[in-house]
Amino acid sequence: NSAASKMRPSDVPETLFTEGNARLLHLTGITPALSYAANGTALHALKLAEDANWRISFDVNYRSRLWPATDAQNGVEPFLRSADLAFIPLRDARLLYGIADSIPAERALDTLAAYYPQAVWVMTLGAEGALARDRDGTIWRQGAYSAHTISRIGSGDAFNAGFLAAYLTNASLPEALRWACASAALKRSVPGDLAVLTQEDVKRVIAEGQSDVLR
After folding, report:
1. Torsion of CA 215, 91, 31, 184, to 10 degrees
2. Tell me, what DSSP letter sits at residue 47?
3. Would you name the residues annotated as active-site residues?
4. What does the DSSP assignment read for 148-182?
């Protein structure tokens, strides 16, 4: 994080951001929290991606050690305003947006969608799995897949990667949720920060696991 906090907008390779060179830019709330310069760099990358007609995905990924909740809510606002796809843990939604514990996760998603209606919202629920809400307000729930947990580090990133791998092939939201939860389960069974997963690995977990439920 020390090196990342020193990033400047001039460090962004602008020649990468051309139409057709990629389809999506994924950012997280950790980068703008690191420093004023890192925030400016992330915003610059966001503008370049938008100008290139890429889709934008953003993971709120709140870290209380980096900034207070009120600063985080303001800091992630420009990214969420531009996001086609937004990821958030339920605990972050409650902390940043004052959503009471008594409000069910589905209604918390509706609250977030009222702030940023242009985004497809994905909410992680820890051991209870995840939810996805399309722009029309339909919500799907996917249970977590079982795993022999060795390390939880990186499982959130694996979740996002699994979701995006399906999303970018125009899979349905329920299918993308399955890929996300299966990828997170696979990562929990691997030590360290990273896991190299194959499509066959993910499909095997889905085939052997539980089904999602349309809500």
Report:
1. -60
2. H
3. 157
4. --S--TTHHHHHHHHHHHHHTTT--HHHHHHHHHH
pLDDT for the residue 190: 77
Within 8 A by CB and 6+ apart from 194, the residues are 154
Strands 85-89 and 120-124 come out as: parallel
Residue with tokens 């209380």: 64
Mean pLDDT of 15-33: 95
**pTM (global) more than 0.85:** yes
Query: Distance between CA atoms of 29 and 46, rounded to whole angstroms?
Result: 13
Question: Is a pLDDT exceeding 70 seen at residue 39?
Answer: yes
pLDDT digits (tens, 9 = 90+) for 111-130: 999 999 999 999 999 889 99
DSSP letter for each residue of 95-164: HHH---TTS-HHHHHHHHHHH-TTSEEEEE-GGG-EEEE-TTS-EEEEPPPP---S--TTHHHHHHHHHH
